[in-house]
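STRUCTURE:
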């Protein structure tokens, strides 16, 4: 992730459970997986990847950003280095990929969602039924 990528947003640092957490956009996820943003969004629609657990400006469609914690993106990068993912991800490998991603999600994201999210103004942000926290930043 050290090289410059066109239109890649800067990481966002938020306080979650009293600790700073770096949140990354879908561009970083696609870079970690070695796939395009379209593929990442399609895999999310298919259920291979979980929906982004955090949203930046959820009420403004043209500036909305889907965010993932840095730890989760690192886990995805490790999963992407597996031989079965490097090549084309066949339907036969979907279950294995989904299981590894779910394990990474449980390890890195669920602990962040259990106690709520605190934004810069130190106000709690609500979670919806899909366990998706919304971070409303200006």
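SEQUENCE:
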């Amino acid at each position: 992730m050290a090289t410059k990528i066109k239109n890649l947003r800067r990481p966002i640092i938020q306080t979650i459970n009293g600790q700073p957490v770096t949140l990354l956009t879908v561009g970083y996820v696609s870079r970690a997986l070695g796939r395009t943003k379209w593929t990442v969004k399609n895999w999310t629609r298919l259920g291979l990847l979980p929906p982004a657990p955090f949203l930046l400006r959820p009420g403004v469609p043209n500036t909305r950003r889907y965010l993932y914690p840095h730890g989760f993106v690192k886990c995805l990068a490790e999963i992407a280095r597996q031989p079965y993912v490097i090549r084309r991800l066949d339907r036969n490998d979907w279950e294995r990929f989904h299981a590894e991603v779910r394990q990474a999600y449980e390890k890195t994201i669920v602990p962040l969602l259990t106690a709520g999210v605190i934004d810069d103004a130190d106000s709690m942000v609500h979670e919806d039924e899909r366990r998706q926290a919304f971070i409303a930043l200006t």
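REMARK: The longest helix spans residues 94-108.
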